[in-house]
Amino acid sequence: MKHYLVMAMRKPGFSEAVIQPHRDFLAALRAQDKLLLTGGFADGSGGAYVLQHVASLAEAQALVAGDPLVLQDASELTVYEWNTH
Known about the structure:
Layout: E1 3-10, H1 19-31, E2 35-40, E3 46-51, H2 57-64, H3 68-71, E4 75-82
Antiparallel strand pairs: 1-3, 1-4, 2-3
């Protein structure tokens, strides 16, 4: 099974107001069984999440494009196809 690692690094001027919409977005992915795990970095610089049951890197990128962190230009999100084992 392919996994996709999404790294989310906060931009200057990051607003805490985006956190709940982002969490709601992640909850929707979890309800679709597309979210394996998620968490923030201890230093507050951002976080990451892992997508599963996604067919391709392009599909993963399309899902991530709908993340409020992206839509509100709060964080820089990068998606990697991750060879897990």
